[in-house]
Amino acid sequence: MSRQDRHHPGARGGRRPGARDPHRPRRHQLRPLLADGPLIIKPYRGSQGAGIEIVHTADRLEGIDHGGDVIMAQRYHEPDGRDRKIHRIGEELFCVERIWPAVTLDDKLGRVELPPHVEQVVRACGDALGIDTYGVDIIEHRGEPWVVELSSLPGFKGVPEGGRRLAARALQWVQDDRLTLAGR
């Protein structure tokens, strides 16, 4: 087991997270889901789109090899347009629309206004987890927003003065903790 695995909160009994986990789906369990449409398969430790595959057939599902690592699967919905990366820092929201996969820096920095129905979904994600600083990737399919991924520690690319905003939020957390500890 690698050092990274040992310190991962999901590590159990010296095994890789998810190893021999009875709740982890096996490929044969994913096959029937293809009857309702394609799946998107992601490696557990994927980053920057590496290893992501859109799977339409059972044969292709069986052909995917991530070296025995845990995979995640979710329903694939064809996006109506560009992907949205939305960052929340406290109460502020910042939206970047981009192509996927992003190739150039300009592909990652196209800031846009956030439609209210998408803002509602973004805030609900953080509220459900009790966090107010995170990133959410959302696509729209047939006019409905779909959460693709949530990260509690995204890169915050495209957030104006992101470092300053994050530092200010961190200082606010410290101040809030002091008041809580002081009984105020």
From TrEMBL:
Domain named ATP-grasp fold RimK-type: residues: 37-168
Renumbered residue ranges of the record's region Disordered: 1-32
Pfam family, one: RimK
Signal peptide: none
Biased composition (Basic residues): 1-30
InterPro entries tied to this protein: ATP-grasp_RimK-type (IPR013651)
Gene3D superfamilies in the record: ATP-grasp fold, B domain
Name of protein: ATP-grasp fold RimK-type domain-containing protein
Organism of origin: Tessaracoccus defluvii
